[in-house]
Specification:
It contains 20 helices and 19 strands. The protein is an alpha/beta fold and 556 residues long.
């Protein structure tokens, strides 16, 4: 009786025990086979309503490619000794907490629970909804998702188009090399030629991707070479590049230099109304993020061959107007250029891929719940899933990796003492600021005193650079006439640099410090170039410094 109670039997009388229908099926599948090992059981053959099958399930899967429209269908079914059920029916029963399913002949059989659990975990790790079975139709850019699912479907039937594509994805570093286009006026380094071939690989297979090389490795020239190749390969439609306003002149100049034969159009300025009609006849169209938001209605009218985002971290927040605007541009192919595709958190990567290949990393909520949170909690398997999924679509090279001919960077720190007067001012101000900060902390608390603390540290840094930077009156000190130990050491270093025939970049976050240095250079007749946030002639200054051997110093 204890055993029967443990199998969910309920006593109606001392002689009659019964099971609810759900428990009856579970009993016949799970408990009955064990019961007959110890007891003689009668009457099971008379059960007309409950026929059981102990057949082992066989999972079958088939991938069918539509090569012309570039999508794949995945058909999964479960076979029980010749009786086949679609995965949807199996999944529905399992997601409702059942452990069995009814076959077409009315009999019941066990679900393949271990396999369903494994596949559900895979869907969660891929950022997809585990309450639903795997989707049946996959776009070409979702090939890595399909490839990952097929790992749990051994023996799946596939065709040659799928097999070739999967092999391409898995060995994407060995993509078919292509020759630089004839109209490119530049000699590509080996890794840049590889970057061009990689971008072409993405184009051929209908993918989007991120060129994430470190700054200084030539993402601009690789991109322009790719656009020139697209034009020479007779891809239809203009190629749109969206850039931050600050680098727009640089893109114009680089395009003029490297791809002079392309028909170029820069959409910029207050009078843009007449520019849009020239888009269709252009090979290369350049605009800014700020203007794209305003001109979106016009830009949506055109079908671009490629849309490329420079400094793509501009859309790291997927819910901004800018991010929503670029997603609405119609293009055959989408690319991101970014040396920092992840600046702060993994969700920024989701935003880039939502632009590149919508839906590739699932919904925002599913990605946050199924990928970001487990990785944050230290789940190595989820991290590996994400890494393997995005790897074919991100090409990142470091300077150390590819620019072997560049000399290693040598960093040296020079220490210098303050002058006596400078040190006295520093000590006096330190006492004053410490008292102010402690008073603020006591009255407002540490959290609300952060600005006060940062302001105090800033003032002390300014004294270290030069007392003339200080905007505070200190009784007994004339900061305008005090010398700076750091500035005196800097002067000695500059004389050594100039006499040695070298060129030097001098950076400071304090514009007033640059102006102090500029005044001294003018007095000593040392030629220099100068650039700060107010400069209107940025590119002219850069050109002068690069092309003038007699100018040794650039203040930035």
């Amino acid at each position: 009786m204890n055993e029967l109670s443990g199998m969910d039997f309920q006593a109606r009388s001392s002689k009659l025990w019964f099971l609810e229908p759900e428990e009856a099926i579970a009993f016949l599948l799970d408990s009955y086979p064990k019961l007959v090992e110890s007891y003689r059981v009668y009457g099971e053959r008379a059960l007309s309503r409950y026929k059981m099958r102990t057949a082992k399930s066989t999972i079958t899967a088939q991938v069918t490619s539509n090569e012309k429209e570039k999508w794949f269908s995945l058909d999964i079914s479960v076979d029980y000794e010749g009786q086949t059920l679609p995965l949807e029916k199996i999944w529905k029963a399992w997601s409702r907490g059942k452990r069995y399913v009814q076959l077409k002949d009315g009999s019941y059989t066990s679900l393949p629970e271990a396999w369903l659990e494994k596949l559900s975990h895979k869907l969660t790790a891929l950022g997809l909804d585990p309450s639903k079975p795997p989707q049946q139709k996959f776009k070409q850019f979702e090939a890595p998702v399909l490839d990952s699912l097929l790992e749990d479907l051994p023996g799946a039937a596939t065709d040659s188009f799928w097999n070739n594509l999967r092999e391409k994805i898995r060995s994407f570093r060995e993509v078919r090399p292509i020759d630089p286009p004839k109209g490119l006026d530049a000699n590509l380094r080996a890794y840049q030629a590889q970057g061009l071939s990689y971008l072409n690989f993405l184009s051929e297979y209908g993918f989007g991707g991120i060129l994430a090389d470190e700054m200084g490795l030539g993402k601009t020239v690789q991109t322009l070479a790719f656009i020139q190749y697209m034009v020479e390969s007779h891809y239809e439609g203009p190629n749109l590049i969206v850039v931050p306003t600050s680098v727009l002149p640089n893109w114009e100049r680089e395009a003029e230099k490297f791809v002079p034969g392309l028909k170029r159009l820069t959409i910029y300025g207050t009078r843009r109304e007449g520019m849009f009609k020239h888009i269709a006849g252009s090979d290369l169209v350049i605009t800014t993020y700020a203007l794209l938001r305003r001109d979106l209605e016009e830009m949506e009218k055109y079908e671009f061959n490629t849309v490329i985002l420079d400094e793509a971290q501009n859309i790291k927040n997927p819910n901004t107007i800018t991010a929503r605007a670029v997603r609405r541009i119609n293009a055959r192919m989408r690319l991101c250029l970014s040396g920092t595709p992840i600046e702060n958190n993994l969700f920024e990567l989701w935003s880039l891929f939502e632009f590149l290949m919508p839906g590739f990393l699932g919904s925002q909520h599913a990605f946050q719940r199924g990928v970001v949170k487990p990785i944050r909690d230290g789940d190595g398997e989820s991290l590996e899933y994400l890494r393997s999924r995005v790897k074919p679509f991100i090409l990142r090279r470091t300077k150390a990796e590819v620019a072997k001919d560049l000399p290693p960077k040598i960093e040296s720190v020079t220490y210098c003492n303050m002058t006596d007067e400078q040190a006295e001012l520093y000590t006096a101000l330190t006492r004053k600021l410490r008292d102010q900060v402690l008073a603020d902390v006591e009255s407002k608390g540490m959290a609300k005193s952060q600005m006060s603390i940062l302001d105090a540290l800033l003032k002390l840094r300014q004294i270290c650079c030069h007392p003339r930077l200080l905007k505070v009156d200190m009784p007994g000190f004339s900061t305008g006439s005090l010398p700076s130990g750091k500035f005196e050491a800097f002067k000695d270093m500059i004389f050594d640099v100039v006499e040695g025939g070298h060129k030097v970049l001098v950076f400071s976050q304090f514009v007033q410090m640059l102006q102090i240095i500029r005044g001294w250079l003018q007095l000593t007749d040392i030629p220099f170039c100068y650039l700060d946030g107010t400069s209107k002639d940025r590119l002219d200054q850069v050109d002068r410094f690069n092309n003038s051997p007699e100018i040794p110093i650039f203040l930035i």
